[in-house]
Amino acid sequence: MARNSGRRARHDYLNDPTAAVYGGAGLLPGDGGGSVTGYLLNRAKPHLPPWLAVGATGLAGALGNWRWGDSSAAGVGLTLASVALTGATWWAGKSTSQQRRLHSAITVAAGSAWLTAACLAGPAAGPLDDLFLMGGPVVALSWNVRMVLRRNDDPSGESADKGLMEKIGLARAQLGNPKVEPNRVTAPVALAAGEQTNDDMAKALGNIASALDLPTSAVRYHPDPDSNRRGDLVIVPEDMLADVVEWEGPSNLGGSIAEPLVIGRYDDGAPLLLWLPGDPEQGRNSTHVLTAGMSGSGKGDAALNLLTEVLSRRDVIVWFSDPKAFQDFAPLREGLDWGVEGGTGTEVMVAAVQQAIPARTRWLGEHGYRQWVPAAAQQQTSPEHSCRPDGRPCGCAGMPFLVTWFEEAANTLRNLGDDAFTGIAQEARSAGISLIVSLQRPSYDQMSTSTRASLPSVIALGCDPRDEGFCLPDEVLAAGAHPGAWGNRRPGYCYVVSPGIPEDRYPSPGRTRRFTHRAVPVMELLATWAQRNGATADPVTAGAASAVAGTAYTGRTPTSTAAAAGAGSVPQLHVVHGEGDDMQQHSVHVDPEDTGIDPEADLPEVEQGDDAPIFGQETGRKPSPEEARELFARALAEFEENGQMIVGPKDFMDWCDRHHLSRPWVSARLKEAALDGRLEATNTTGRWRIVPALTAA
């Protein structure tokens, strides 16, 4: 009941702000029992105080004359009291408008002067009674007129909300006519010139929320970029995010990735939108996205909202890394162009993205695109976008937009270094690539400042109050955004800062939709749709990825094709015929690697390293240089065939045991292979990336 009363009071204020200043909802028409008398009494109540003050002054003059009529000392005291009261009124009115200050001081001076004369000479002596009968009503009516004018937004700045501004210490601020929308009120603010700034208004937002009995997030201030004392005060009285909305499916199945992605709703009911590619006609740049929030704040649901929207578009492919083994994203995995589970796979994916950037940028430039647009994803049949020197249509396959997503990126940053994404973040946007990074705390000890500065968009969910500065720009926090107020108590609540979103929306809280077990079948259907109808990697992007990842990158290759490719690697059985009647089929019992060994041949001579192990000394046979190169090339081919494209000495431990080779020998071969171009150094010391055999050749 109390909550409903509070909501009604806030509704009354937003529709008639004078109700809060002049006594609340009880003074509004119709609250006096429905009678004309009651209505008139309610309307007259706010105007009675000045008249009561005039009557009290006359009564005080009569009583004072009865008490001090013959006392000269009382005359001195009353005169000094009159001067002191007038001075105190002038001093107290310093924070108010000049008109109010002067009006108050004149009223107090006139009233105290008449009271002093009446106490000493009598209220009816000389002209005192006439002054009281004429001057008293004039003073009272002047305050009644002032009160009536306060109901309108007059040029002097005495707006209907002046009482509210006085309460928060900004009495000289002027509020313009508010714009009332469903669950949203916007009022222009003009602060006192030379005395108040937009920073003062931003600091007072908490007091405004307290005066209106609203949460802090319901009151925002949007400064005017062209003025340091003007802006818009926005009040959202009802939290429309309190009710959970479940995800039921994508908003635009089969649309373009250039169209807005709907990931939730704002607190006033408007859709929460996000754009990834740029739009040269609207002047919007392509963007990368940082998703940040503490454990339990709803990062998983926020990611699912965004990923399902991306996968539902026809001209985009997704490369996805999740060190948590796709715990939240398993139903969508079949719709990805490339998915890895962290570790070595993520290292390869980062290198593949770095390789794809110049390849895609070169293709876009050759076809006349300054940035990726939906037309780039179609077959190039226009002469304006031809790579042929003669200008005729080239017919090249289109290039879909590429989303590279690194979930739980703190794990990747620990393994690859805090600047692992710096180059990608700085260069990928011009290549039609969007980088999405998700982690709990984007602090400077986890992510380099260069990387953070290159992520223009952020989805900031609940966090520790001390981490707000890591998630949102200072100007958005100053405008009233406070993700630290939620923590993990309101999963899905977020602020979104991104190109294409009006800046006055940045401090407006939103909420993503919730994914439950009922969403799993729909996500699986979406993954199937993406697999059948979604874009596939273009030859340029696929070639760049294969040049780095080798067989670790397959794209959306049909299972039958993969099976056919692997059929050729099955070893064939060889029948060995003996002499005479003792024919035996040795191939069934012989290891394929030993089929070429003559069982009758003598064993080779003892070579260096074939002796028994000696304590404290590494052992193992040291092959000849030719054999060493052949063995190591075979080992790299095995790793490449298995899709493990990042290797180091520890990865060769089992291999060394099988071939009786030592680790120092492997370390030397790694360096030789790097010099030969078969390996490339990574950001991690002691780790090497295998260059696919065809690329190396």
Automatic annotation (TrEMBL):
Domain FtsK: 269-470
Membrane-spanning intervals of the chain: 72-93, 105-125
Residues where ATP binds: 293-300
Entry keywords, A to Z: ATP-binding, Membrane, Nucleotide-binding, Transmembrane, Transmembrane helix
InterPro entries named among the record's database cross-references: FtsK/SpoIIIE/SftA (IPR050206), FtsK_dom (IPR002543), P-loop_NTPase (IPR027417)
PROSITE patterns: FTSK (PS50901)
SUPFAM superfamilies listed in its UniProt record: P-loop containing nucleoside triphosphate hydrolases
Name of the protein in its database record: Sporulation protein SsgA
Organism, scientific name: Streptomyces daghestanicus
